[in-house]
């Protein structure tokens, strides 16, 4: 478990900024429920937020046949946001959202969909597909780890929150192998996970036949339902070029130009995550802003909020 520290979030500390378009809840790997997010955002004085869980928008609507429009104490999220509540902001705008894992010309990317009609044509079917692919990827991880010699027999698999995988890797039977393979002996679990799974050149990415839905499908469905498609954290796909910003800018630009042809309308420019202390620097945000301007893409920002109320919503 990573211990979260109190953030100094440059995006949201800037006076006047009252928006956050990147928030996770218990419907993926966040710690708070959508209802708690709404209440907390009001208390913090936010004006407009979007809840953007991985591969699903179950905070709003469930898969077909289960719960169509989700309510919280009898109220929908929008009604909850409008209900007066003590705090800095009485009325909060809350926009539908999701952060969809998908692939575009062989690159794994994440597309933020905003402002779509969650019950519109094809939306629930899209959700079923993206959730199915996430489940398949979880199974692929299990098989990959078993091939490496780990004992993995999970009772319950949650494709949006890999806490169960950590528990499996921490089994006594895996101790020797874990310690042998982990790059950082002080933090074997975390370092092994990032070594094996993170990035396009990771052993897992090279070996596994990963299930990803095509970006075209995501963008199209979101747009046809009144939504807007936005590229999430565009530098994340080119972190290997962090020390070569000119090259990195070129790569980001190529990607967004290609995505624009299939309907991308925005880019996440202001972005911060805290789990590993990786903020986009001022320079990196400037880089992204330039790309967005040149390509006439709308600029979005958020904190990729996952954790406790001490984090910045
Ligand atoms: Zn996210």
Describe what this molecule looks like in 3D.
- The protein has 313 residues and is an alpha/beta fold.
- 36% of the residues lie in helices and 14% in strands.
- The chain is built from eleven helices and nine strands.
- A six-stranded mixed β-sheet has the order 6-4-5-7-8-9. It has a three-stranded parallel β-sheet with strand order 1-2-3.
- Strand 8, helix 11 and strand 9 form a beta-alpha-beta unit.
- The chain is globular.
- The N terminus is likely disordered.
- The chain binds zinc ion.
- The site of zinc ion (ZN) has 4 residues, from loops.
- Zinc ion (ZN) binds next to loops.
Helix content: 25-40%
Alpha-carbon Rg, integer: 19 Å
The count of strands amounts to 9
Characterize the biggest β-sheet: 6 strands, mixed
Q: Which shape, going by the Cα principal axes?
A: globular
Strand order of the largest sheet: 6-4-5-7-8-9
> Helix count?
11
The first-to-last residue Cα distance is: 20 Å
Low-confidence stretches: 1-13
Order of helices and strands: HEHEHEEEHHHHHEHEHEHE
* pLDDT averaged residue by residue: 87
Helix and strand content put the structural class at alpha/beta
Bound molecules: zinc ion
How large is the share of residues in beta strands? 5-15%
């Amino acid at each position: 478990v990573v211990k979260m520290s109190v953030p100094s979030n440059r995006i949201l500390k800037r006076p006047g900024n009252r928006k956050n378009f990147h928030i996770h809840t218990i419907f993926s790997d966040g710690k708070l429920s959508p209802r708690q997010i709404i209440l907390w955002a009001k208390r913090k004085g936010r004006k407009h937020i979007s809840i953007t869980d991985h591969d699903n928008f179950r905070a709003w609507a469930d898969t077909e046949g289960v719960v169509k429009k989700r309510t919280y104490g009898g109220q929908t999220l929008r009604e909850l946001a409008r209900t007066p509540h003590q705090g800095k902001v009485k009325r909060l705008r809350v926009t539908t959202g999701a952060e969809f894992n998908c692939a575009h010309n062989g690159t794994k990317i994440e597309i933020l969909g905003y402002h779509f009609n969650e019950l519109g044509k094809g939306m629930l079917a899209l959700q079923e597909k993206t959730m199915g692919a996430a489940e398949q990827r979880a199974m692929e991880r299990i098989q990959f780890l078993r091939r490496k010699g780990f004992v993995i027999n999970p009772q319950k698999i949650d494709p949006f929150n890999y806490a169960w995988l950590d528990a499996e890797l921490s089994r006594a039977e895996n101790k020797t192998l874990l310690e042998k393979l982990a790059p950082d002996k002080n933090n074997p679990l975390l370092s092994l996970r990032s070594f094996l799974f993170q990035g396009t050149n990771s052993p897992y990415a090279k070996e596994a036949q990963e299930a990803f839905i095509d970006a075209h499908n995501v963008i199209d469905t979101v747009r046809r339902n009144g939504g807007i498609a936005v590229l999430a954290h565009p530098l994340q796909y080119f972190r290997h070029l962090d020390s070569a910003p000119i090259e990195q800018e070129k790569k980001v630009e190529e990607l967004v130009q290609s995505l624009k042809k299939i309907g991308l309308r925005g880019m996440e420019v202001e972005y911060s995550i805290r789990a590993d202390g990786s903020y986009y620097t001022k320079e990196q945000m400037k880089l992204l802003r330039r790309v967005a301007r040149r390509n006439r893409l709308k600029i979005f920002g958020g904190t990729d909020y996952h954790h406790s109320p001490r984090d910045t919503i």
